[in-house]
Each structure stands twice: as structure tokens, then as C-alpha cells.
Amino acid sequence: MESGGLYYLNICSGEEVTTSIPSTSSVNPSICGELRMQMVYTSTLPNITSQTMDFSFAQGVFMGAQVISPTNATGIDQTITFVNTPYYDADNSLSFTAGDLAGYPVEFVLTVYPVTIVDLGADATICDGGMYTLNAGMFDAYMWSTGETTATIDVIMAGMYSVEVTDGNGCMGMDEFELFVNPLPIVDLGADVAICEGGMYTLDAGMFDAYLWSTGETTMMIDVTVAGTYSVEVTDANGCVGMDEFVLTVNPLPVVDLGADMAICEGNVYTLHGGMFASFLWSTG
Fold first, then answer.
1. Are residues 27 and 88 in the same domain?
2. Full-model pTM
3. Which residues contact 91 (CB under 8 A, 6 or more apart)?
């Protein structure tokens, strides 16, 4: 940089860069006047103001390197152009004027790429057994906290997820996302039951926000009389769904035949036979 010239550098938003100024060897030491430095920089970044500064070598001002870390949130490339011109202040005006003898200017063009923004969206909640797809958007490379390297990943486990993306400029961006998983509601219709023909059984699904029975009913309880398999889907306050099944068996009524009505003479006995069953209760007690 001591002999002048034009230099370029591209950086990502927020990266640090070190700039320096030409040394005294870039001007002729035989010329009289105080050795000074004019630095003019112009910026297209809205948060960095363009300005001109004049420095004195004799006073030891601004002799070292300068570290800057410009941030570009505009969405497009922005530039900061530095032009450093050493000169002898021949007319002692303490500024760069037409009567001064300038050395070789050094122009340094710094291109600041826009900040890389990746947005995984708001944190989300799913039901146990469900799945959520995270989409990092269109970039050149991806590195998820899961080790995956695709633009999208499917997650099922509760926890924090993060992705680091790299765009076409080689700049990187990162975002985090938290997934919550709600348990499924537990519904229990009880053990399977057998009833007698003509009987009825009440199924109770318990307290939930919504119900859908295999019969099409939407109440908490239903009465069933027909043999078969019954099921219910319940929905809790989180929108999660649980299910249970129940089998109803309907046994036929026993057929008992005491025979035709009979007439006997007073003093005789007639025996009634109820047949082969588990228990009996006659009208006589």
C-alpha cells in the first residue's frame, strides 16, 4: 500500500476488517511542509456517514491500523470506499489544498454483503406421534444441530433445534427453534362386556373436549344394545386425539319350557321340570 494503488475486499455483515494508511515513504521527503494525511471515505451504508478527515503525522495522530465491523441490514451489497492521500502541507493551511504536493493515493473499496437472515418461524407444539417440518429457506449450504445438511428436516422429539446456513457469498446466518410435544389423551372404555339379549350397556369415554364414536354419536356416553366392536376418538384441550375400543357380546336368552298346561285331580301331584340351567327362581319362591 505504500506505493499507492486500488484494493478490494469483500466481507460479510458484521465481520471485522483492519484498515491501514500509507506510510511516509509514499511521498518525497525532500519536499518542505508538514507531512499530513487526508482520508476521504464514502459509504452507501445508511448507518455509516461519509466524511473527510485530515491527520497530522507530526502530531502522531491516526498512525495505527483501524478495526471496523460494519453491519449491512439493507438486503443488498453496500460499499465503503476509503481514499488515503499523503501530502506535504506546503502552504501551512492545515488542510489539503491545491498548493500542496500529494503522494500516491491508496483507494480501498470494501464491499459489505448483506446480513444472512434465516427464519425457522415461531416455536411450535405438536401431539405425541406427530411430525413438524422445519424449513430453512433457499441457501447454498446447511448445517442443522441434528447433523443433517438439507434445506428441510422433519422433527418429532421435543427440544431445541438450530440451523446454520451459508449463502452464495459465503456468509453465514443462524436461527433456533423449539418444539414442544403434548401427550395424547388416555381414554379407557373398560374391559369388554357381555350382556343378555334385550339388555343395554353404557359406554363412558370420560371428560374431554370432543368425542366421535364409531356409531357417529358425539356425546361423552352412549348406550349400546347390539353385539359388536365400538370405538371412540376423544380430543383434549391441546387438540390431541386418543382412541379406545370396546367389544360388546350379547348372549341369547335361555329357552325354558314347562310343557302344556295340565289338569289334575285334587290330591294328585304334578312335577314341573325347569330344564338344565345355572339357577332357578319359581313363582312359589
1. yes
2. 0.74
3. 33, 97, 99, 100
The phi and psi torsions of 253 (rounded to 5 degrees) equal -75, 145
Confidence of residue 81 (pLDDT cuts 50, 70, 90): very high
Contact 144, 161 (CB under 8 A): yes
Q: Is the pLDDT of residue 267 over 50?
A: yes
Q: Are residues 164 and 197 in the same domain?
A: no
Q: In 3-state terms, what secondary structure has residue 26?
A: helix
pLDDT given for residue 61 in this prediction: 52
User: Which three-class secondary structure state does DSSP give residue 235?
Assistant: strand
Q: CA torsion 73→6→18→43, rounded to 10°?
A: -30
Contact between 243 and 184 under an 8 Å Cβ cutoff? The reply is no
Q: Is residue 94 located within the same domain as residue 29?
A: yes
Q: Decide if pLDDT at 129 tops 50.
A: yes
Domain range enclosing 247:
193-251
Place of cell 446466518: 173
Taking the mean position of all CA atoms in its chain, how far away is CA 274? 75
Those residues with Cβ within 8 angstroms of residue 271's Cβ, 6 or more apart along the chain or in another chain: none
C-beta of residue 70 within 8 angstroms of C-beta of residue 64: no
